[in-house]
C-alpha cells in the first residue's frame, strides 16, 4: 500500500518537495507510522512534523482525502491504500491570546571561547559558562514562570538545569529552538559564518538551514505554547537564531532588518517579549 503526504510550510522546504509517497507492506497503517517514516527519512523535518513530546503539533491541521476528519486526526488514525494526507499549518486562534516570554541565550560554551560557530554541534558549557548560568538563575529568581523551554542542544540544556535548579518548574527541551544548522560550515570561525548571514535569509547554508527555515520552526513552537500558556509567562533559553525568530514573530521588523541589526549584548542577558495570536497570524509566512 501507499500513502501520499502533501506538505506545506517549513516541512515542505526542509524535505524539498511538496508530496512524498510513503510505501507500506501492510494493508493499513497509522498516521503515527507515516510521520515516523518521514522523520526517519528526513530527520531535519522532525521539528515541523511532531512537537517536543512526539505528538501532533497544536498548530497542525490534518486533512485526509481533502477532508478534515471528525473527530480530528490523531497519531492513531488508521490510513488505507491510496489515502492522501495533507499536513496543513494553521495559524493560532482567537486574537486575545497573549503570552509573556522571557528569552536568554545559553551561557558561554567551549566553542564560544574558541571562536567557533557551533550550529547543531553539541558543544558543552565552559566552566565560565556554568558560573554564568548560576548567575542567570539569580536574575530569574523573582519571575513567576509557567515553564522553561529550551533548545535540546547541551549548551542550552545545561544552562537551564543549572539556572533553574530547585525551582520545581517544567524544564522542556524542544528541538525547534535550536541554533541555525550551519551545515558544511558547522564549527567554522564565527566571523566567517557571520559574513554569510545576510545571504542566508532564504538560501540555506550548504546542507544546512536558512533563517526563514529557523523562523518557521520557532513559529511552530510559538503557536503551540501560545495556546497552552495563554495569559501566562514562560522563559525560553536558546541561541542567536532563536532570538532572531522571536524578534520577527513578536515585532514588526523584516528578516533583512533583523539580520543587519548589530547583535546586542546585555549585562543581564534577558529580553522580554509579548506575543499574541493576532501577531502570529499577521506575520505568518508561507
Q: Which short descriptors sum up this protein?
A:
286 residues, 4-stranded mixed sheet, 11 helices, globular
User: Low-confidence segments, ≥5 residues, pLDDT <50?
Assistant: 90-96
Radius of gyration: 19 Å
Structural class comes to alpha/beta
> N-to-C terminal Cα separation, in Å?
31 Å
Overall residue-averaged pLDDT value: 90
| Strands in their spatial order, largest beta sheet | 9-8-10-7-11
How many helices? The count is 11
Overall shape: it is globular
Residues in helix, %: 25-40%
* Major β-sheet profile: 5 strands, mixed
- Quaternary organisation: single chain
N-to-C order of helices and strands: EHEEHHEEEEHHEHEHHEHHEH
Beta strand %: 15-25%
Number of extended strands: 11
